[in-house]
Write a structure and sequence with these properties.
single chain, 532 residues, alpha/beta, FAD/NAD(P)-binding domain, 7-stranded mixed sheet, 6-stranded antiparallel sheet, 24% helix, FAD/NAD-bd_sf, flavoprotein
């Protein structure tokens, strides 16, 4: 039998990397198991001219389309929004757009401010030093001082506005609405061994140059040098418990498919808002018949996706097309509740530079604005390199019927039951999306755009997987406490997006990592009485 490790982390993505690096200074024996492997940037799509074609196949953001051995299938037939993720060292940070907002202070007090959902058991201020630390580690670029966003101090200057940003900014100015250059994790100067962005290609199907920070090139090199052990191609099937109800280790399949048991004194889950409830629900025992850490019955419940309402059109001036990063500006004009709008809470806006030629051709043909025949090339030239996009990230309020369960039939390549998604968009979210599309149309028409098209919701928009193991002080209404420890299992911690209480209206990665660093700090402060 293997010797027990002090801390076992499951998942090497955004949160797993951050918590591993932070705990490394304790000199404990820390082991991370990751079901994917190390990625080779020389094989990333952006190294070739066929990068867009690859994005429809082996580099799709959907695990159901990619179907790599490292992936697990997801039954999301009963959801208008499909799950997208990535399994590798670095996790979904390998594939994300590098857009880098934070949750706002108001997001932590939704019940107090608006009478819906629940307040978080911590406040924004508790995370501020960890946001700052994470920005330094990931290497953010941005312009400090946005009056409608939390104050940030990016270590690198903001991305250029580019052709698209100038057009959008002018239209927003004419309407008298707020906009600001986006914070990103794309380098604008040489930083910590990473070269600045040279617009090698679109950010989403991985950055071959390394200008976009993913945790395989930021946190993990530091963590490994500090002594953290990382085993790849190790898929965890279940977390085991001892006679006292404490986590005792994990059963996993190694790179050869051989079942192994790894004992551990502390277990940390960092598997995202779908993978984490899947693992907990698969970890049943006599003591935990409904799944591990699930006395509340809330494991897998309250799934929040962020419905994306997207509207785009075409201007006569050239835009930036697929130049990195894809989002150049943001707006928080409609972020907080305004009762006159007819819904509670609000949404953030990402302004999108454009699209590559293959994507433009495929999507425009589907939308019916690119004809076949003698007019095809003339219309394509009018569309290609002239797109402007407005995407609203709508706050998704927690609802228990939106959930992750175990599929009774579908299994991964190791025979482990796959997750099943049941999700509907609430009436509040639908009103929010309608409002966002109306505002987006105003912006585009002010910019002179024509051939306006809508995707609402974006079907392959399940990037943000939140809320399925929520944080709280009441064990009957939450899965983990205010510092990430499971109420039912004193040496089990969760650090990923599943612990979110509410979703906010922004991309969550920055907040996920700040929470992981905060929980690691709490663990270090409480080491002497960790199991009390």
């Amino acid at each position: 039998m293997k010797d027990p490790v002090d801390v076992l982390i499951i998942g090497a993505g955004a949160s797993g990397a951050a918590v591993a690096w932070s705990l490394a200074e304790t000199k404990m024996h820390i082991l991370c198991l990751e079901q994917g492997g190390w990625m080779n940037p020389a094989e990333y799509p952006s190294t070739g001219r066929d990068w867009e074609a690859k994005f429809y196949g082996e580099w799709s953001s959907s695990p159901n389309i990619r179907g790599r051995p490292e992936d697990y299938p997801v039954n999301d037939d009963n959801s208008p929004i499909k799950v997208v993720n990535y399994n590798a060292v670095g996790g979904s940070t390998v594939m994300y757009t590098a857009h880098w907002p934070r949750l706002h202070p108001s997001d932590f007090k939704v019940k107090t401010l608006d009478g819906v959902a629940d307040d978080w058991p911590i406040e924004y201020d508790a995370l501020t030093p960890f946001f700052e630390e994470n920005d330094r580690m990931m290497g953010t670029s941005g312009l400090s001082g946005d009056p409608l966003s939390p104050l940030t101090h990016p270590p690198m200057p903001q991305q250029p506005l580019g052709l698209s940003g100038a057009i959008i900014g002018k239209a927003m100015n004419e309407l008298g609405w707020h906009w600001w250059p986006s914070d990103t994790t794309v380098a604008t100067m040489d930083y910590e061994g990473r070269a600045r962005c040279i617009n090698l290609g679109h950010c989403t199907p991985a950055c071959a140059q390394g200008a976009k920070s993913s945790t395989d090139i930021t946190y993990w090199p530091h963590a490994i040098r500090a002594g953290v052990e990382l085993r790849t191609h190790c898929r965890v099937r279940e977390i085991t418990t001892d006679e006292n109800g404490m986590a005792s280790g994990v059963v996993y399949y190694d790179k050869d498919g051989v079942e192994q048991f790894q004992p551990a004194h502390v277990v940390i889950i960092a598997c995202n808002g779908v993978g984490t409830p899947r693992l907990l629900l698969n970890s049943k025992s006599n003591r935990f018949p409904n799944g591990l850490a699930n006395s509340s019955g809330l494991v897998g419940k309250n799934l929040m996706f962020h419905p994306y309402a997207q509207i785009y059109g075409y201007v006569t001036e050239p835009t930036d097309s697929n130049r990195a990063p894809p989002t150049c500006l943001w707006s928080k004009q409609w972020y907080d509740t305004d009762p006159s709008r007819g819904f509670v809470r609000g949404y953030g806006v990402q302004f999108v530079r454009g699209a590559g030629p293959v994507f433009e051709a495929v999507v425009s043909e589907q939308k019916g604005i690119l004809p076949w025949g003698e007019d095809h090339h003339r219309v394509f030239r009018k569309l290609n390199g002239h797109r402007l996009g407005f995407s609203a990230i709508c706050e998704d309020l927690p609802e228990e019927h939106n959930q992750v369960t175990l599929d009774p039939v579908l299994k991964d390549s190791h025979g482990i039951p796959a997750p099943k998604i049941d999700y509907t968009i609430s009436e509040n979210s639908r009103k929010m999306m309608e409002h966002a599309l109306a505002r987006g149309r105003e912006v585009l028409e002010t910019a002179g755009a024509t051939d306006i098209c809508i995707n609402s919701p974006i079907p392959w928009g399940g990037w943000h997987l939140l809320g399925t193991a929520r944080m709280g002080t009441d064990p009957e209404r939450s899965v983990v406490n205010e510092w990430g420890r499971a109420h039912d299992v004193k040496n089990l911690f969760i650090v990923d997006g599943s612990i979110f209480v509410t979703s906010g209206g922004v991309n969550p990665t920055s907040t996920i990592q700040a929470l992981a660093l905060y929980i690691a700090d709490q663990m270090k402060q409480r080491l002497a009485n960790l199991f009390d």
